[in-house]
Amino acid sequence: MKTNRNRLLPIIYGSLVMTFLYLTPILNFVNLLCCAGVILGAAVGVITYIKQIKNTDMELSVKDGGIIGFLCGLLSGILTTVIYLTLIMFSNINPISEALPLLEKLNLNFNQNEMSVVNKISEEISRSGFSLTFSVYMFVYHLIGFTIFGFLGGLLTSTLIRKSNLKKIKTL
After folding, report:
1. How far apart are CA 137 and CA 47, in angstroms?
2. Are residues 18 and 48 in the same domain?
3. pLDDT tens digit string along 112-131?
């Protein structure tokens, strides 16, 4: 029996699904449901891994699912940040200046220090198409969110698949 345990291809597939669902207009609404797109991407990674090990003597563990989901989230967080910042730099769109009127409609009151930081970031993006502060914020935001929900998606998928396999075995 083969005992090759290559997780790279499932991680790449899961990350691509996560990134695609996050960055594609209209499809990205699925992420409003507790980051369901990220969880779905992790599920794709775990299912791809199951297909790889199907003809081997290995079985899927919950740990494998968690690791695959976490790494899918890590790679997707990096990819999403790079693509998002590249689009901002080359499209002359300033997401900060577009979001400020929406925040004012919500009657959110910012103090003077907060507004000066937001205005500084907006000016940097308008001037050069790039802001280091905004880039670091987006990177950390994507990394934390994608890894947490990717990990949860991998755990959830591997647990559900293991339970369904146990039920099949018990009925035999």
Report:
1. 32
2. yes
3. 898 899 889 999 998 988 89
